[in-house]
Amino acid sequence: MSGGATGQGEAAQTHAPQPKRRAKREAVLKEAKIIAGATDAVIECQIQDESPLGVLAVVDAPLALPDRVTIQLASGALIQAARRWKSDTKIGFEFVEVPPDAEPSRQQIRHVRSVLETKGVHEAIYVMRASRFFNSDALRHAAEEVEAAQLRLEALLK
User: Fold this and answer.
1) Taking the chain (158 residues) in consecutive chunks of 10 residues, what is each chunk's mean pLDDT?
2) Which stretches of 16-77 are assigned E, i.e. beta strand?
3) Domains plus CATH for the chain?
4) Whole-prediction pTM value?
């Protein structure tokens, strides 16, 4: 996600994403908000893919954005990000700092546990995915294993 230098103008950073990636992307479909500028303008967007290092956001219409923004996920998490590239309505952002909720709070853990007990594994994984699995690869891998095991069980029971 490197390639754009911070502090340069909008035109200098308007280009397509580079094919080399430092982290594997995961296709997602999440509602989010971009909070930008001195007035904290709020722009609705949709996250179409994500990695531990950043996201691809899609907005309704092309727009000018500052180099640094805050992305608010549907979970409420606020993530500081730098605009690395822009192409029409697609914008690539790189996270510039670890989100403040990178370590799950006891309240978040209790919430996921409650969802797991009352609504089941799919809903609990949805909640964890919305929080980017609290930036835990171990938690993400465990959730993926649970989903795969459930699919295998369902296939065997058909």
Assistant:
1) 41 49 77 88 93 89 92 79 94 75 68 88 81 76 86 89
2) 26-36, 41-51, 54-58, 68-73
3) 11-95 (2.40.10.220), 106-156 (no CATH)
4) 0.52
